[in-house]
Amino acid sequence: MIRATDLIKNANGARILRGVSFEVAPQTVLGIIGASGSGKTTLLRCLNGLERIDGGAIEFDSIRLEANLSAAEYSRRVKGLRKKVGTVFQHLYLFPHLTVLANIIEAPTHVLRVPKQQAESEAVALLDSVGLKEKARRYPETLSGGEQQRVAIARALAMHPALLMFDEPTSALDPKRSAGLRSLLRSTVSRGHTMVIVSHSIGFLEGLADQLLYMEGGEVVESGAAHQILNSPRDPRTKDFIEQAK
Amino acid sequence: MLFSGNVSAQQPLRWGADPSGGAPYVYNDPNHPDQYIGYEKEMVDALAAAMGRKPEFAPSDWETLVSALQRKSFDVIVNGLEPTSDRQKQIQFSKPYYIFQLALTVRNGEQQIHSLADCKNRVVGTLGNTAASRLLQKENIPMRAYAEPLTAYRDLELKRIDAVIMDVPAEVFYVSKSTTLKRACEPFFRGTYNVGLRKGDDALKTEVDAAIDKIINDGSLEKILRKWGLWNDAQLELQKPAKAGEKNVDVGYDITSAAFNWREAIWRLTRAAFVTVLIAFGSMVIALVLGMPLAIGQWKGPRPVQWLCTIYVEFFRGTPVLVQLLFLYFGLPTIGLAMPAWLTALIGLGLNYAAYESQVYRAALEAIPRGQWEASYLLGMGPVLAFRRIILPQAFRIALPPMTNDFVSLFKDTSTAYAISVWELATAYRELANASGQFLLLGVAVSLYYLAMSLPMAHLARRLERKLQRREAIEAVEAEIN
Question: Which residue in B181, B197, B279, B401 has the fewest CB atoms around it within 10 Å?
């Protein structure tokens, strides 16, 4: 169970998050939607510990992040949190000096100390599941954008995270590839992962997200079951956004 | 004739000499630094008076006096110049005005050295391009050439060399009051100081010779020499033949012939090239190793560390490497840290280039997107692991081309070691070319040496760069085909 309570985040004198609260049940998908500048990417960076929160709390199973923790304690807990959370950035940030395979086994072998052979066979299986088995020895820059994204997903999955987070996963994909990604993510969820997906593409989230959360100006305007938000939004602002997005 | 005679009488006597460390010949008056003093300064005043001219001093550099004379920077050299046979090929000489001997100086405690022959396996310091340096070369005694007597004697005191051989006038000036140095033996060897003139300036030579005769015979030269403590009975020999109207007094004194030997020169250049390579590689290792903590300290360290690293970098980049070397070589011994010249050059250039390498590293590290760090952190890596495995390898590729450039320029900067008398290529060139006048051919040879060393290095770096890129390039081509 992931729970955020009254999250507050300030940056450069401005309040980016103004008391954001939500819950994600295990093995479900939460989609976070909203216009750019609504604070959804910042929310994601708070959830994986890249940004420190200034108020409220984040709970993930037994780990609890609070604003008033000491810096050392906060980063200790973030370390624990990151063992459970995998992130795929909008810009992916694959390691350009390593092959696809080396990208995937880098953290398992050096952080989890998995033996190299075992890590490699696991990586090959992961690459197989994302359809890139034959590109294991290639360098990332020689792959297409969609292929690179699947490498990034495999790299995150190799650390066996309970929660997988995506920031704008469809920004570089055409509609056909988006559909492919959606089915890949669906099968990933069915294997027991929980997901948080930040996206402005409602079409992508439709049929993938169980819950939706609409943000505006650093606040949650509306959240609930995906079909309810999409079909009968209660707040006029949500309604406007969804109509424009469609 | 009368007219031209008048003109020449009004022309000043333009004389060249090196006043830096030039005591007691001609040097800056310590009490009035804008004035020059010295026994030769007084002698030139007397000569000029005898010629009915006004003396005009052109401060110059000892090593290039002959070529400066040929370029007409002045008309005569008066600087304790010996009429060596190699110089006689380039310029002509007046009759001698002083008979000098050489003095061998050692430290007070020295027991082994009692003559020049005892120095066969020792290092002897002297001024570059002098009769003394030719003598050492001829006798095959390991030599270190200095630009000034003072630095030679100081290195002797610091045990960087085992003995110093110097013309007696300089030796009297610098050593007679020393409490740490002594003469190893009685002065030996005899040579003469003559006025140097351009070939073809025969009228001037006649004029100068007559003036020398005049100041010898009327006793004014003797008075000057006595005043400076340089008079001895040997000088009487110059009076005798002059008084008897004889000529060619200098024949007996020209013992200093060092005919130019190309094989010898190439061997000495090769030795210099090895020293250059040693200094370049040694200092590059220091620079590469020390540059990294500097870069990281300046980039991510706590405030005080950032400050210290910035001060280091700005100090070494903002002051000339030449000054840094002089400071290390002459300044550090005063706090008890005396290193041999080659080691000083190696460490000095290393410290200097570490400042530059740190900036190359820093720029390369900062060029890696923040996302690479964040992606590493999110995969559970700590900062050290992320730096070592993810950031550093990417930064290395960015840093490689500027690092190569720096190495090539470091290679050329080894020539600054000339200032502290390291026998590297630039020193060798100056020394050999000044001794032989073969500036052109030796210059070509030295350039070839530099190129022979720097080109393979640039080539190697290019190959390394390409190797790093090749893997990716092959992949890219494959991707194109698929």
Answer: B401
Phi and psi torsions of B168, nearest 5°: -55, -40
- Backbone dihedral region for residue B380 (phi beyond 0: left; psi -120 to 50: alpha; all else: beta): left
What CA–CA distance (Å, rounded) separates A94 from A158?
A: 14
> A217: which 2 tokens?
């100006």
Q: What is the pLDDT of residues B448-468, one digit of tens each?
A: 998 888 888 878 878 887 877
Candidates A45, A77, A97, A134: best to mutate against B (most CBs of B within 10 A) is: A97
| Distance of alpha carbon B250 from alpha carbon B193, whole angstroms | 9
Q: How many beta-carbon pairs below 8 A join chains A and B?
A: 64
Question: Residues of A at the B interface (Cβ-Cβ below 8 Å)?
Answer: 48, 50, 79, 82-83, 85-87, 89, 91, 93-97, 106-107, 110-112, 138-139, 141-143, 155-156, 159
User: pLDDT-based confidence at B479, cuts 50/70/90?
Assistant: low
Determine whether the interchain pair B471/A83 forms a contact, defined as Cβ–Cβ distance below 8 Å. Answer: no
Q: Count Cβ atoms below 10 Å from residue B87 Cβ, excluding itself.
A: 22
- The interface predicted TM-score of the complex, written ipTM, equals 0.93
- A230 within 8 A of A202, measured Cβ to Cβ: yes
Contact assignment for A93 to B397 by CB distance below 8 Å: no
In sequence order, the 6+-apart residues with CB closer than 8 A to the CB of B448 are none
C-alpha B13/C-alpha B187 separation (Å) is 33
Find residue B324's DSSP bridge partners: none
A118 φ, ψ (degrees, to nearest 5): -65, -45
Please report which confidence band the pLDDT of residue B470 belongs to, taking 50, 70 and 90 as the band edges: low
Closest CA to A23 of A236, A169, A196: A196
End-to-end CA distance of chain B: 95
- Are B472 and A142 in contact (CB < 8 Å)? yes
Provide mean pLDDT across the span A172-200: 88
User: Which chain B residues in 375-434 lie under 8 Å from chain A, judged by CB atoms?
Assistant: 375, 377-381, 385, 389-390, 393-394, 397
Q: Which residues in chain B have Cβ-Cβ distances shorter than 8 Å to A86? A: 378
Tell me which of A74, A92, A93 to substitute to probe the interface with B (most B C-beta atoms closer than 10 Å).
A93
Q: Rounded CA gap, A43 and A54, in Å? A: 12
CA distance B397 to chain A (A): 9
Nearest to A142 among B390, B393, B475 (CB): B475
A87/B369 Cβ within 8 A:
no
Encoding tokens for residue B420?
């502290």
The C-alpha R_g of chain A, in whole angstroms, comes to: 18
| Interval B106-145: pLDDT, tens | 999 889 999 988 988 889 999 887 888 888 888 888 888 8
